[in-house]
Amino acid sequence: MPTIEDFIKERLQYHLGKLNELFQENELAYLSSHCKNELQIRDRIAWKLHQEITKKYGDLYVVRREWAPEEKNKSRVDLAILEMTADKKSVKKVIALIEFKAHAISRPEPAYYGLEFQNDVKKMRMFRSQGGIFADA
Questions:
Q1: Cα(128)–Cα(119) distance, rounded to whole angstroms?
Q2: Is it the case that residue 106 has pLDDT exceeding 60?
Q3: Beta-bridge mates of residue 97
Q4: 20 closest CA partner among 47, 42, 41, 50
Q5: What is the layout of strands, in order, in the sheet containing 61-67?
Q6: Judging by beta carbons within 10 Å of its beta carbon (0-12, 13-18, 19+), is residue 14 exposed, middle or buried?
Q7: Mean pLDDT along residues 57-79
Q8: pTM score, whole prediction
């Protein structure tokens, strides 16, 4: 059986490659032309990953949208895949942190995305520095 990290990477690549199949015909085009579509994409991928991960690895692994290591933390990551403790009350380990940037139609300037990417990397590094749940992430 592949590691959960390898499984997540493969499934995420698969779903991004087949993104159009997660939406009805022309739905993604409509969403992209009228608003930032990253939330809709994130939610569809989160649901698929949740179904696949729990089926293969059990319910100690969860997929969370808009997650932060502490409730008081204002900065959140778009999607987190977490291993929970046996009682399912706290996070044992962070398996993956994923950010989505999917609004190229509304902001086509390449410089904008470079800055967005840098900010996301800083945010994830800040999360990682906050403790043991990120030791192997």
A1: 14
A2: no
A3: 80
A4: 41
A5: 61-67, 77-84, 91-98
A6: exposed
A7: 84
A8: 0.76
